[in-house]
């Protein structure tokens, strides 16, 4: 694996495979009460400039359960908020900690940190990508569907950081990905160009949610206004008409369709209450698997040498 995990294009297919295998193994071992303390004595820093429940807590608990220590820093509490350059902060933190997970608005800030630090840097969500989310989500797909190779995933919603990471994953792994976004909220061209589409035709873009969900094994959605876009929500509620994942839309998917959402969810907007509360849903497994996957990511980056 490369030094950093900034986007899923940093991973080769074999890296994905070994992370899925290790995360599933760690989950099984944890369920049997076996704790692997492979990161004893190691420290993970977390610098977060946006809010988080799942990603923060799953990274922190992952690190603690592996025998290491997390240190959470809100950007506001660091000298970054007083304009200390990223390259200085990155070099200083490299002298104290063994790995850094970052959640920022601008993706280039995470890139700057990665460039100037000698420790691995992990993207814990930027405006552009959410790679660790999709790693744990594909782990969830493997658990529910027995694999990811022959599945059809439909994205219904905003052309945002989460779908950008799905596009990266599909471009490396080759599964079918149908992406439906409203006309003015389609995935930006720069994120399509960056994805080396290896198996031609496995990623399809449309403005029609019904076309996207047709025969889908997995239907995935996310909020219509991501962190930083909240001011646009009322306009977006109009623009996203017809994009709610509800029973009517899902009737076009396979009977055993798995509905997924990275959470937090906005009931009555991108997803209907009864779909979110369906007892066969994957949402809570997705949330749990973040902890197991983050363990696998931390181990593979920190114990690389
Ligand atoms: N899914 C996810 O990243 O959730 P948080 O924003 O709560 O971390
Ligand atoms: N697209 C959402 C994901 C939150 C986990 C956001 O960036 O706010």
Q: Could you state the order of secondary-structure elements as H and E? A: HEHEHEHEHEHEHEHEHHEHH
List of distinct ligands in this structure: phosphoric acid mono(formamide)ester, norvaline
Question: Hey, roughly how much beta strand do the residues contain?
Answer: 5-15%
Beta strand count: 9
Structural class: alpha/beta
- State the helix count: 12
Query: What form results from the Cα inertia axes?
Result: globular
Spatial gap, N to C terminus: 11 Å
> What's the gyration radius in Å?
19 Å
Mind telling me which CATH architecture of the largest domain this is?
A: 3-Layer(aba) Sandwich
Low-confidence stretches: none
Give the count of structural domains: 2
Assembly context of the chains? single chain
What name does the CATH topology of the largest domain carry? Answer: Rossmann fold
Q: Please give the largest β-sheet.
A: 5 strands, parallel
In helices, the fraction of residues equals 40-55%
CATH homolog superfamily of the largest domain = Aspartate/ornithine carbamoyltransferase
Tell me the strand order in the biggest sheet. Answer: 7-6-5-8-9
